[in-house]
Design brief:
Number of strands: 2
Structural class: mainly alpha
Helix content: 40-55%
Strand content: under 5%
Strand order of the largest sheet: 1-2
Shape: globular
Length: 224
């Protein structure tokens, strides 16, 4: 269990480094790192959103602070989530036809405009709405509005490496589902291919039976 918690410490340090990179040019910028992560998305899924993106990190930290302060937390019911999770893909499809919305710039506003002191009033209001919302719901922007997350998520569906669940060890405690910031039903699958998965590894961290691991999918056995 300690080794799994250490994984989240490493993730926090990684997120903090890339957040610092927004302010200090000598440290690699998150958007620069994203350019070199194409093949990792195809092979291992979306690590950028869970480990690199500063805007995603801020939403994670706000959610953590809110829980420590015992603020009310809302989780979208899965019967609603299964439809609502397609929002960012629909918005991406619309953007390819030139139909876009100002609130979709929230990640850019945070990563660039705010840091460079060029944040507009409307951009500030949009950021405030998402950041306040992050106190009560996990990663609201990432879940439903991030176009980059939508693109990377679609590419990650074919990944051969992902989170694998050992059904024989699983006690169906639902901890993996309740702790997933992207509201994915990890317990319902043996190999996570969900396009919204950000590889935060929280499900692996909280699993009391060590039945979740990040590994290569099983290849189908040849019939004799």
């Amino acid at each position: 269990m300690k080794s799994k918690k250490f994984l989240q410490i490493i993730r926090f340090i990684t997120q903090a480094c890339f957040l610092t990179g927004l302010f200090f040019p000598v440290i690699i910028h998150a958007d620069v790192a994203a350019k070199y992560m194409f093949w990792s998305v195809l092979l291992c899924g979306v690590f950028f959103c869970g480990w690199v993106c500063p805007f995603g990190a801020i939403q994670d930290w706000l959610a953590w602070i809110a829980r420590k302060l015992k603020c009310p937390h809302f989780r979208v019911p899965h019967k609603v989530q299964k439809y609502l999770q397609f929002t960012r893909y629909i918005l991406y499809a619309l953007s390819t036809f030139g139909i876009t919305f100002v609130f979709l710039n929230a990640r850019y506003n945070f990563n660039h405009d705010m840091v460079n002191g060029m944040l507009s009033v409307s951009g500030g209001i949009i950021l405030a709405v998402f950041l306040i919302s992050a106190l009560f719901i996990d990663r609201p922007f990432c879940n439903y509005f991030c176009l980059k997350g939508a693109v990377d998520g679609m590419m990650s569906i074919v990944r051969p490496f992902s989170i694998k669940r050992n059904n024989q060890k699983c006690i169906h405690c639902h901890l993996c589902d309740r702790n997933c910031p992207m509201n994915i039903l990890v317990e319902n699958t043996n190999f996570v291919r969900h396009p919204n998965c950000i590889n935060c590894m929280k499900c692996i961290t909280v699993c009391p039976k060590n039945c979740l691991t990040f590994k290569l999918m099983n290849l189908p056995e040849k019939k004799k």
